[in-house]
Amino acid sequence: MVQARLEELNLPDILTFNDGNRVENKDMWPRRRAEIIQLLGSQVYGFSPPPPPDVYWNIESRDDMAFANKAVHSVVSLKFETPKGEFSFPVHLIIPKTTVPPPLFLNIAFRQNIPDIYLPVEEIIDQGFAIASFCYQDIVPDCDDGFVSGLADMYGAKNRKPDEWGKISMWAWAASRVMDYAQTLDSIDKNRIFCVGHSRLGKTSLWCGAQDERFAAAVSNDSGCSGAAISRDKTGERIQQITSRFPYWFCKSYQKYIGKEQDLPFDQHWLLALLAPRPVYVASGSEDNWADPYSEFLACVAASDAYKLLGKKGFVYEDRFIEPDEFLHDGDIGYHLRKGPHFLSRYDWQMFMRFMDKHFL
Ligand code: GTR
Which spans in 100-166 are helix H? Predict the structure, then answer.
């Protein structure tokens, strides 16, 4: 049933080079991966500038007895130089008092709140995961302001070219700066750092993990259109709706695909494939028709080709769409369908942690 649907959709092949040649073995993958980044960068999210030479920081506050003395909670001001001088933003770091350095979720957040309705901090630290969380609005405001504030202003994005970064790329780039900082910490396990985000920030998390291979895995929750969901024949939100409401999330070139999903030289399973061979997790809400869970599921199936090329399992599923509250954790691509609407719930977090425990313990 799922396979038949994919055949109908006739998606662009991950394993065919732009010149039409086949990607035959894993040694050819880095070259193909570079082509995919080039295409998604120039056509969807926009290219980001190179990283700053250095990040530095101040510890603004530190609570050694946070969350009933189970964790250390610091607020760090992260800084780096830009063409217009220093830029800084706050990052919350919560490290549980475990005997070995814990894995870390790098959370791209809607709000600075610790905890937050989307971030059940105690449940996460109780299961031995550390958290680094920053608010996306502290990077660049989520509005169509002509790119005149925050990080956009520092890099002169007001005059961006058609293939230069939109705000999803800016938030993803900022998450990589938090990763630069995380690489300096001995109190966490640097080999188990996972980026995570919900909705627009789920799209951001995937694009971040796709480009930055220091992330051991990426998690997207309800990321939908221009995130984990296949664009061809998608229900709910489509390129037309997303680019008219949020043109500034993307590069200008993306506009040319409005109403032309069939002509896209790629589809969103390519974004998931960029995570290969690293685990990637896609979570959907069963009533989130705007995001379209089934199209997210289809992307997981179709992205498997890259994983299999690299000797991994990819997505392990039966040839059917799953029921609400079922989950699929056996493959390198994990998926669950939470019963309910668009939201990032405790259940979702429990599933992310369960998947990471399975793949990284
Ligand atoms: C919606 C948008 C979606 C999704 C969501 C969110 O309005 O259409 O693509 O990103 O916002 O971020 O909550």
Answer: 121-126, 150-154
